[in-house]
Design a protein that fits this description.
single chain; about 160 residues; alpha/beta; 5-stranded mixed sheet
Length: about 160
């Protein structure tokens, strides 16, 4: 497991538009503006999920990759945090999960408060890849954290 600091165009966001809880977002935004730490977000390399894509979904994803060559990772959890980091022009602080051993290590970070408790840590690495595959199969479009943040701003879905 590696800790990374990434730009918002390097992470493929979840398709949970708009953000479901403005209060949580605002709490993270205030913390980011004050340079206070917030929990790391879990990500995985896009290749792990892409290998599950077929047919139309694979075509849509390849088109997305062509337009977004810097996007290297899928977000597993953390839409509110990544949006807050993006708005404040801070790098997104993430943990890269690359297998079941990393999920186990991430659970230890949950106990230390460095990562938020989430159901993803109850699943194996491969199960998390399949969960992302199902998510994008149901909502077949892709967007980076940067694009999602701009969309939220444009549609006035944020209060910053």
């Amino acid at each position: 497991m590696k800790k990374l600091r990434l730009e918002p165009d390097q992470i493929i966001a979840l398709n949970d538009f708009p953000l479901y809880n403005k209060e949580i977002f605002m709490d993270y935004l205030v913390k980011c503006k004050q340079k206070n730490p917030i929990p790391l977000v879990p990500i995985i390399k896009k290749e792990h999920v892409k290998k599950l894509f077929r047919n139309e979904l694979l075509k849509i994803f390849k088109d997305f990759e062509q337009e977004n060559p810097k996007s290297l990772f899928f977000l597993l959890d953390g839409s509110h945090r990544t949006t807050a980091w993006a708005i404040t022009s801070d790098k997104i602080q993430a943990i890269l999960l690359d297998g079941d051993k990393d999920i186990k290590k991430a659970r230890e970070l949950v106990a230390k408060g460095q990562v938020l408790r989430n159901a993803i840590f109850d699943h194996s690495f491969e199960e998390n890849c399949r969960i992302l595959f199902r998510h994008f199969s149901q909502k077949p479009y892709f967007i980076t954290v940067e694009q999602k943040t701009k969309k939220l701003k444009t549609q006035k879905k944020l209060s910053s």
